[in-house]
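=== RUN LOG ===
request id: a7f3
mode: sequence -> structure
chains: 1
length: 703
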Amino acid sequence: MNRAILVLALVLVPLSLLWVHLLIRGEFDEVRNLRSAAENTIETRDDLAQLLTLHLDAETGVRGYVLTGDASFLRPYEDAVERRDALFADLRARSTAADRTELDGLKALSDAKLANAQVNMADMRDGRGDVARARIAQGQGKVLMDRIRQSIGLLQAAQTAQLRQVSTAGTGSRNDVERLVTMLLAWVAVLLAFVTLIVGASIRQRRRALERAEHFAERQRAMFDSAVDGMLWLDAEGRVLRMNPSISRMFGYSEAEVVGRHNLMLMRHDYSVADARGWLATVGDAGADGAGRRQEFVGQRADGTTFETEVAISRVSSHNEGELTGHHYIASIRDISHRKRAERLKTEFVSTVSHELRTPLTSIGGSLGLVMGGATGPLDDKTRRLIGIAHDNCDRLIRLINDILDIEKIESGKMEFDIRRMQVGPLVRRTIDAMTGFAQKHDVTIAVSFPPWPLCIMGDPDRLEQLLTNLVSNAIKHSPAGGVVEIACNQQGGTARIEVRDRGAGVPLAFRERIFGKFAQADSSDSRAKGGTGLGLSIAREIASRHSGTIGFADREGGGTVFHVDLPLAKDQSIGVAPGDADLPLVLHLDDDADCLSVVASAFAGSARVVTATTLREARYIAMRQKISAAIIDIGLGSESGLSLLDQIRASDKTLPIVLFTAIDDASHIEEADRLLVKSRASIEELVAATMALIERREREAA
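=== RESULT ===
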C-alpha cells in the first residue's frame, strides 16, 4: 500500500512541476501576444496619422497651386498620391475583419478627395482658375477632409479599445497564473514532504525486513547445518557450493574436499557431467507433494565403500527485481541402507511364510472340499455349515496369500508381464464370464456396453483380467441385492477407458486418500462384512501403472461409485499385423470366441492382415470404414447371428469372398457365402488356404 502511495506521489511531483512549467510558458506566450498586439496598434495608429498628414499636405498643395498658379505647390500632392496606396496596403494587412469595413470607407473618401483635387488642378491647367477657386470656396474639399479625419479617428479609437481589451485580459490571466503557480508550488511542497515521510517509513520497513531475513537466513543455516540427513547446496552445473556436517559424517570427506567439486564424487556411477546436467534439468521446484524429484543412488564413501541412498532434490529459482537470473538446487541425501536391508528381510520373510502356508492351506482346502462333496459320507446340516465356514475362510486365506505375493512381486519388479496386442472386448467378456457366479451369489446383474469399433491395447491379458476382476468383485460386493453393475468401454483420445459402475454406498471422504493403499478398507468391519483383503485396489493400481495406464474413481450421479481404468491404445488397431504387412490384403474375422480369433489371426501372419470383431456391431463398423478383401464369419454369436452381416456385405459388394467358419453344420447357409467350413471338421490351415484362394481368384477376375 505504502509503495503504491509513494509511486503515486513521485508521479504527481513531476506532473505538478510540468503543470507549473506549462502555466508559466503560457504566460510568456500571452505577454508575447500582448506585445505583438501593442506593436500592431502603434504601427496602425502611426500609419493612420501619416495617412491623415498626407491628405492634409495634398489639400494644402492643391490650394496653393489654385491660388498662386505656381506648380511647385503640387509637390506635397504628388508625394501623397505616391505613398497613399502603400499605406492602405499596410493597414489592410494588419486590420481585423471588423476594421476592414471602416478601412474600405476611408479608402473611398480618400479616392473622392483626390478626385476633387484632380478636378481643381485640371481647371487650373485649362485656364479656369476662377472655377477652381469658386469650388474651393464652396467647401466641398473641406467636407471630404473632415470625413476623412473622422474615419481615421474611429479607426484609431478602435485600435485603442483593442489594445485596452488585450491588456485587461492579460492582466487577469497573469493574476490567475500567479495564483495557480503559488498553489501548485505549495502542492509540490506537500507532496515532497509526504514522499519524505513515506520514504522514511519504507526505509524503516526495509530495515525490519532485512533483520527478519537475516534472522530467517540464520535459522535456515542452523536447520541446514543441524539436519540429520546430508544437505548439499548445488549450482546449476551440479557443483557443490555448501554442505552440512552430516555429509562429512556420512561420506567421510571434509568440507574443503567437497566444496567446489561436482556432486558425482559422492556416488558410484557411470554418468558423465553432461548426463548429470541433463538429469538436473528435469528437476522441478518443491511443491505440495514434497521435493521436485526423488531418486535412489549408490553413495561412495571416501574409503571406497558404498551404501544405498535416497536423494530428494529441488530446484530453487533466483530472481532479481522480478526477473529470473538462474537456478540452484538443494539436495537432501539420506542413508537408506538399513531400510533396504529391512525391506529385503521383510520380503524374504513374507515370501517364505506365504509359500510355507500355501501348501498346507491347499491341502486343507482340498480336504474340506472333498468332505463337503460327500467323500466321507453324508453330512448333517450343522456339520455341513461348520465345514463350509472353514472352507470359505481357507479360500480367503489362500486369496490373501496370493494377493500378498502378487503385490510383493509387483513392487520388487519380479512379476513378469506378457505384453501383447489384445482387444478390450474379449478381455471384458472373460472377466464377466468368470464373475457371473459370484454376481449371482450376491443377487447382482452385470451389464456391459461396447463402442461399435474394436479397441486394441498392448497388455498382459492375465494381469489385466486380474485388475478388472478386482474392480468388478468390489462393485458386486458393495452393490445392493437386485442391483446392476455396469461395465462400459469407450475411447477417449488415445486411450481406452473401462468403467465399472455400481449403486453402492459410495467411498467415504475420510477413506479416499488411502483407497489405493495396501490393506486399505473403509472401516474395520469391511473385511468381515465383504470378505476382502484390502489389497485388490493396490494390486489394480500397480498393474495399471505397469501398462502405462491410470486408475481412478468418482462419485456416480444418483449414488454409487464409478471406477475407471485408462490404458493407451495400440498404435496399430488391427490384430496380427506385422510392420512389413501393410500391403497384404485385409480380412475381417467375426467370432465371439477370443481364442479362436487369436489363433486364426496368427495363422494368417505373412499372408493377410486380420482385423477381428466379437460382435455384429463391431463387424459392421469395420466393414463400413475399412476396405476389406474377404470376410470370415461365425454364424452362432449367442443371441445374434452372423448371417445378418453376410446379407449386409452382399448388399454392398456381391463379389467379396465370404467364408462361413462355424460350428453349425447346415449347408443351407452356403447360398450367399463362397465356402462353408465346419470348425469340428476343417483345420485352421484349410481356412487360411480357402480364404487366400478366394482372394486370389477375385484379383485374377478383376484383372
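=== NOTES ===
Residues 2-192 form a domain with the Four Helix Bundle (Hemerythrin (Met), subunit A) fold (CATH 1.20.120.1730).
The chain has 18 helices and 19 strands.
=== END ===
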